[in-house]
Amino acid sequence: MYLSFFPINYLEPPSFVLVPESQAVVPNTTVRFKSTFKGTSPFTVKWFKDDTELICGPSCFTGLEGLSCFLDLFAVGISHSGTYSCQISNDAGTAKCTTTLLVKEPPEFVQKLPAAKIMKMGEQLQLECKVTGTAPLKMSWYKNDAVLSDGDNMRMTFDNTVGVLEIFKCSFEDNGVYTCEVQNDAGTKSCSTTLTVKEPPAFHKVPTPVEGLKGKDASLNCELKGSAPFEIKWFKDQKQLKESRKYKFVSEGCSATLHILGLEASDAGEYECKASNNVGSDSCQGTVKLREPPVFVKKLSNMTAISGEEVVLLATVKGSQPMTVSWVQDKDHILRDGDNRKITFENNQVTLKIFKADSTTAGKYTCQLKNDAGTFASLVVKG
Predict the structure, then answer these.
(1) What is the model's pTM?
(2) pLDDT digit string, tens, across residues 87-106
(3) What is the C-alpha separation between 249 and 292, in angstroms, rounded?
(4) Which residues are in the Ig-like domain (predicted)?
């Protein structure tokens, strides 16, 4: 009896000795996942990303070296983040392991600072920006390239998404360029705004009331403080004026002037100047009147006097001051105060008082009124 012996080969299924470590990398780097294993060769190696088998090409390469295998990913981007798995197979079985790749997202502003910011003196400023990117993110604030820190008038907050810079009371010293910079391992981004703090206009000199002569020019001038430039508008009786042959506007720095050319009766009234800038407005008023020529409101009347009695000639007048009053007896005898005579002009009343009438008192009296309105009035009375 003869015995026959047949060789029996034991096949060891694959198993991992070292699995790939999870990685977190910055964009545009090359990533290698490597694993070692044991088992009976030959082996078939496959790599997957999120259950999709990877094929060698420009963006990845797989290799097998003895009892180790690797996956190279080139110039990785955000889309490469995910779960990767390595599958090893032989005739005895299959083994699989997984790992993860995080490609860090560089910071990006989804809400930038405004290009410019204008604030009113004393107001509270809040600059806000929103960012995305892989944590941890670090945010810094700068003014004119100098780093800022919290203080009595300033506070900065950041919750890894929204960054805020607060200035509690703005002043001229806060003017400048403010930059928000955010960074992580994947990169740095920044955005800037220019802050301008302005003072609203306020009139400190209002127009002096004007009494002008017909046909002459008149001007209303006012001065203001605040941050120039100002927008100046003039109004008459609440209607806006436009520059024309009648009206000329002059604005220089903190001074504004309205010139009214060739005064007419219709130019009399109330005028208003309105000044504004980016942070506020103010207004002031002034009046224009035409100078009135003298007019007798209550006239003198003829009268008869008894010798030795007091004689009073009295008239009421109106017109723009200053006004001069003169009395003439007969044709050319200009009367002045004397021992027997008193001339007064008070409260729009002109008076010629003769203490004791005599033979020289009789005659024709003329009262003449005159001002710079260019006209005069006279009244004759016989005594």
Answers:
(1) 0.69
(2) 999 999 999 999 999 999 99
(3) 27
(4) 14-102, 107-196, 201-289, 293-382
